[in-house]
Write a structure and sequence with these properties.
This protein has a single domain, classed as ph1033 like fold (Roll). Strands 1, 4, 5, 6, 7, 8 and 9 form a seven-stranded mixed beta sheet that branches. The protein contains three helices and nine strands, in the order E-E-E-H-E-H-E-E-E-E-E-H. By secondary structure, the protein is of the alpha+beta class.
Amino acid sequence: MTNNTDIKYFVVGASWGGEEDCSDVFLREGTWWCFSKDAKNRTEHNVGNSVENMKQRMMSIKAGDRLAMKKMHKFQESIVVRHLGIVKAVDFDAWRIYVNWLPTGELERIVEFSAICSIHGGYSISDPKIHEIFCI
């Protein structure tokens, strides 16, 4: 059983490259992911949305953690929270997160929060912005 103090909160992207909306795929499959299992860095730098950087971030996600699927809004100054979910399992061989997406419909909640990369987190619910993102 997960203790509420052990739960971490992550904000994840709804689209690949900021262009291709994949939220329907994620909802239908009960998954979230941001690269194929054989993906390699396109550059030697491990910053931003590099595959290695995303793998490092993904490795900190565990069952019971919470995800908020977002899209960017207003020149990256804010996000639109679209869906919320609870992590069921993480498959590090396939680099997939299995998620119980909550049946809230599209929330379309706008929050001032800069989240350019595909994965942001390990946040605590005590952070006021995180509380605003994840409140139902």
